[in-house]
Structures are given as structure tokens and as C-alpha cells.
């Protein structure tokens, strides 16, 4: 169509957005302020301003089959859960396969300049001085005739020189892990604390904790990872958590990946039909079969569905390497006092794993409105009040499942909306025309800045809008083997390429061979006389038909 689309960021979301625009015949230009693609998954030893920062030991929490782009499976020899370097390699292969690099405008940065921190208490591991040669998106503003054209003025800056251009649409893919949230005002006495403290974004290596007494505040995935690594060299490690959390392992039933076992259409159908209280009780019973969370100080409040993944924490608690404590009540000169605990705990270093703020410094505040700490976005994507649906925010969502298929589906839907194709695509219209935005109730996502939703429900919703949701009943008549695999087996993203726009001829084969790619990198030794067959996930067809009749699937 010749429609020009500006894509901000070349991480997972930006690459998906660029590729989906090309699939729809749009003309994307992707702006990336750093020197390479990858976003969150591109590790650098130094911390770059405006970019996410990860530690070198970071491994994905979701398996490769569930985390793949829907038309580009991971290589079969890649491990089931990906170290950050291999996930970055996958993204580079994806960009190469679909010719994305020539659509990306990279920043040209000189070597990062680092200085030691000067403050005695707030001690970042490094301080980054911004380079004068980086290319950044400075501002995105409505064109004067936006009400008619929906166009945007995009201003970029490189080497001190600004360039302005007009685009027909914008996809914001800048991520949500660049601006650390450090609410020191919530921690009484921190100003008198004589030890060191820093945000988890500053963490790179555990040697900083050698022989120290370490307190990790917050119990997200990063917090637990850092606590586990610190406990191998520190004198003592304590995790402070107000709410607790269910703890899952990457290795699930029968040794298979947790998400391939847990995220199926059958289980999702059952879960979404149950009352909330019953659903919580079933999940609580399931996760406590591995170990009693109450005995380990981890049991979450029953008002919240909180879960994280770590393979080591239970054994580290059991062996005394890590202690779980309630929320911080007060800091003293060289110690901390916890709620409901009368004794002070001596502390040398505090790591605040308190999350990130979501911000879009290049957008006017009126474009993406924040309500109760949540962005007011239709389907978590489109600002609710724009006259034209020509700006979309991708990735501002936290599903209990792999994020990559979610942002890809968002990009597929958004590119169709931009193009104006398909009767099933319903672009948002102004609220005074009868459109009601979808904002999650605060009780479901207390104090979270990233919108949360059910993974499969959300994917199916967007897939239905573009005609890409698989029909299990339809396939039951034409391809029963595939239908049963889709319903009872893992809900891998290839399902959303079986039909509709962007359908992929290799989708069926990718679904039927997904367990082969899981077993390939692990079954490196086969004992004599053992069976080489994989566990069958195909059940009797009438069970599927019965489920469809009963639940209206």
C-alpha cells in the first residue's frame, strides 16, 4: 500500500512489528538507538542509557517451542530453555531470514564511557555517560491534519543533528525494562543506611557479594535469580517479600518443560470455566505437591495469582543458603528490621528488585494516558482516545506464558488494522462513538505497571480478529490427528499459522514434530533396549467432541 510505518525499537517486539508490516505490504522503518538488534536479550557488560540491562547468566523462563515466532521454529539442536546469547542468535537468524536488517536504522555509538559512582550509599556498579553519536527517537507528535490523515511527525537525533519525517502510522516497541523503579520513600531509614544499595538493573556478576550479608528486596524472577547467584559467594542472603509467590520449576511433570505441560487448550478451557476461588484452590493444591510453600515462607496471599520460575530456590532454602523474610519495616545504620520480626538483621548490601516504570519520553502524555498506574489501551495495544487508530503500543503486557508469540500476534493484528483489511478487524474509534476501552480491574493486578492477562485467551482474541484462530472442530473432521494434538497438546504458536492471513505451509509439520525438537538436545544418550518412541498426547476423538458439546468450544 506504500503506507509508511515508524517502528520504535528493534527488540523482540520491533522485529515482529517490522516483519508483520512487510507481510502486509507496508513500508516500515525501524529505529534502534543502539548498534544491534535484540533489545532485552542483547547482553552488554556496560549499562547503556535507555536500554534494558541483563546479567550474563540470564536464561529464558519459557521453552523454545512455546517462545518461537509462529512461522520460524528454533533450531532443533538449541537447548529447551535458552541462554540469552542463544536467544539473541535466534533473533539474528529471524532478522536475516526475513530481510529485516535493511529496514532498521541503527544508532552509531562510540565506546561507552564509564565512571565509578561517587555517592557512598547509592552504589551502581557502573555509571553510563550517554554517547553524543547515538540515534534516538526524540519526539512523536500528531501531524496538524491528524484528524483526517492519522499521520505522525517523527523526530530523530544523531550526532547532535535532528531529522524530521512524516509517517502514516507508528508502532511503539521500546519495551518496559529500561527505567528502574526505586521507591526509596517506601523504605524508612534508608537515608541513614551506611551499606551499599542498588537496583537489580545494575547487577552483572556475583563477585560484588563476596563475603557480604546480602538483602534482596522483592521476589520477582530477577530477584530470585540474583539471590541464588549471590548465595554461592555471600556470607548470608535474605529475600524480603510482602506477598510471597508460588514457585515453579522449568522442569515439570515427567521432566518436560513447564509451559508445554501447563498451557494447553484443554486445561485453559477447564480453568476459564471454573469460579475464581475454585481455580485458586486447584492451583494452590497443584503447586504445593512439589513442596509446601508455607513451610518455606513462600505461600502467597490468596488474593493474588503470583508465580515465578526458579529451579534452585527450594534446595537453597532447605540448605540454609537463603532465608525468606517479610517486608522491610525499617533500615538502621547497618541492619534492617522486618515486619512482625523483633530482631534486627545485619546487612552489608541491599539489592532492590522493585521493578520498572513504564514511560514513553518521546510521546506527549496525552497520547498514552495512564490510569491507576495502567495505560489506557484497547486490547492492551491502541490508545483509547485517538481519532485515528494509527499508533499502537506493543509488549506492554505481562501474560503468564511466553511473551514473544503475544507481541507477534499484536503486530499481526496492528499491521492489519493499519492496512484496513478484513471484516473481522475492528479498529478502535473514539469513546464518544460508543467504544469502551478494556482496562483490567485493579483488584486483579494490584500495583503492577504492566498489564496482565490470560495468555491463551488473549492470543485467541487477537487471532479471531484477523481470522487466524485455529478451528479444532473443523480440523477434527479433516485432520483428526492435528486436531487432537492442538487440543490436548501444548498450545504452541504454530497453531496460529494454520489458516488466515500469513498462513504458513510448515505449520502442521511444526506442530506434529514439536516434541521431537524438545527431546533432540536432551536425549544425547540412549541406553540399550530403551524405547525411542515419544509419549503420545493423542486421546480418543470422541472426548474432544464431548468437550466441545459440553463447553461450547
UniProtKB/TrEMBL annotation:
Matching entries from InterPro entries are given as:
FAD/NAD-bd_sf, Flavin_mOase, Flavin_mOase-like, Flavin_mOase_1, FMO-like
Q: Which family does the entry's similarity section mention?
A: Belongs to the FMO family.
Species: Tychaedon coryphoeus (Karoo scrub-robin)
Alphabetized GO MF terms: flavin adenine dinucleotide binding; N,N-dimethylaniline monooxygenase activity; NADP binding; trimethylamine monooxygenase activity
The catalysed reaction is: trimethylamine + NADPH + O2 = trimethylamine N-oxide + NADP(+) + H2O; N,N-dimethylaniline + NADPH + O2 + H(+) = N,N-dimethylaniline N-oxide + NADP(+) + H2O; hypotaurine + NADPH + O2 + H(+) = taurine + NADP(+) + H2O; hypotaurine + NADH + O2 + H(+) = taurine + NAD(+) + H2O
Protein origin, superkingdom: Eukaryota
Transmembrane stretches in the record are: 533-552
UniProt cofactor(s): FAD
Q: Which gene encodes it?
A: Fmo1
What EC number(s) is this enzyme filed under? 1.14.13.148, 1.14.13.8
Keywords (A to Z) from UniProt: Endoplasmic reticulum, FAD, Flavoprotein, Membrane, Monooxygenase, NADP, Oxidoreductase, Transmembrane, Transmembrane helix
Q: What is the official name of this protein in its record?
A: Flavin-containing monooxygenase 1
Task of the protein:
Broad spectrum monooxygenase that catalyzes the oxygenation of a wide variety of nitrogen- and sulfur-containing compounds including xenobiotics. Catalyzes the S-oxygenation of hypotaurine to produce taurine, an organic osmolyte involved in cell volume regulation as well as a variety of cytoprotective and developmental processes.
Topological relation to the membrane, as annotated: Single-pass membrane protein
Q: Which GO terms describe its cellular component?
A: endoplasmic reticulum membrane
Write out the annotated subcellular location: Endoplasmic reticulum membrane
A Pfam family of this chain: FMO-like
**Predominant location of this chain?**
endoplasmic reticulum
